[in-house]
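This section describes the prediction task in plain terms. A model, or a person checking by hand, is given the sequence of a single protein chain and must write out its three-dimensional structure as a string of tokens. No templates, partner chains or ligands are provided. The sample shown here is typical of the held-out split.
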Amino acid sequence: MIVGVGDITGDVKADLVSRDSAGNVWRNNGDGKGSFGARTRIATDWQGCKGLFQGGVSENGSHPEQE
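The expected answer:
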């Protein structure tokens, strides 16, 4: 499962988040040229997850629809 989540690293380049069948969640940093770097594990134990979804978070960490 792969989700294009936008810029989660703050470098103004689009990143990807994916989950493998073992439940590891990975981030691939975008290079700004249409490609992505090596993956970095950012979470574990997500085997029960049925989906990853893109959502917005504002600068203060809250979800925009809650503001």
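For orientation: Residues 57-67 have pLDDT under 50 and may be disordered.
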